[in-house]
Amino acid sequence: MSKSIALSLVLAASLGLAACSGGAENAANAAANAAENASNAADNAMNAALNAADNAGNAAENAANVVENHM
Length: 71
Hints:
By secondary structure, the chain is an all-alpha fold. It has one domain (about 1-70). The chain has 2 helices and no strands. It has helices at about 1-20, 25-70. The longest helix is centred in the middle third of the chain and has 46 residues, at about 25-70. The radius of gyration is 21 Å and the shape is rod-shaped.
């Protein structure tokens, strides 16, 4: 959902720039590049969240192992 919102905002901003610059082809390329960048940023954020969750799970498992080994 937030990915589509980000892409919509990027597209709107790119169209605004296109109106000012008058270069339709350059504006289309800029919009495509901006959309790809936003998509990549969303993917990177998702991967970072998944990695953080994995790290938290590993830390909890390690803590449980320490407790188990000292009993």
